Amino acid sequence: MTLLRDEHLAAAFDHAARSYDTLVAANPGYHAHLRRSARRLGLPRGGEGLRVLDLGCGTGASTAALAEVLPSADITAVDASAGMLERAAAKTWPPNVTFTHAPAERLAEAGVAGPFDAVFAAYLFRNVTDPDAVLRTVHGLLAPGGRLAVHEYTLGGRRTDRAVWTLVCRGVVQPVATLLGDGGLYRHLWRSVVEFDTADRFADRLRTNGFDTVRRLPLPGWQTGITHTFTGRRPTTTETAR
Length: 242
Description:
Helix content is about 40%, strand content about 20%. The protein is of the alpha/beta class. It has helices at about 5-25, 30-40, 60-70, 80-90, 130-140, 160-180, 185-195, 200-210; strands spanning about 50-55, 75-80, 95-100, 115-120, 140-155, 210-220, 225-235. The protein is globular. The longest helix is centred in the last third of the chain and has 21 residues, at about 160-180. A hairpin with an 8-residue loop joins strand 6 and strand 7 (about 225-235).
């Protein structure tokens, strides 16, 4: 199969929205890992006085992680799938959390404007057609010194990492998703990971697009070598990215 992109991917997520939370709840550590990545932003005082963009919020799992770790931040959550966003917005949220329907490539058209003190992106970049263009957009939305955390399936490069990922997808995730009528989306999930950057390559991509102090951080459990947190920073106006 070819990878799903743009409106085709959004439509697949629309259809899967009804069962998405049930599937991710069966993934050991899913929500705890998102909270860990949110903490890795390293924002002070629970986010007091800060603006945070949750880019690709889905049904709100990443938003919930941010709201728990940064209860005082002003959180703007964005997603390209109307169905996923509807599920997210229907949940109970504090008043400092807002939702906007927009693809990552067209944030300005939806009125999403910086500067943000931090951007959090979970499971987003392997799904966009041009990750470099989206990284440049994120860089432009951040205030000087603003921070980025990317939580993403990025294989570590060992043969074992790909084997474990394939076993989990083909042995567990895809059969269940097919029964729910969403097999195409979860076949895309497997392929989007094996065809995307390795963890080292994605860290280099961040540096190439202007971020400094880039770190690649592992996550525990079965996802070690499969899922990573990447952190970086937009340099201040007196610095040069390195």
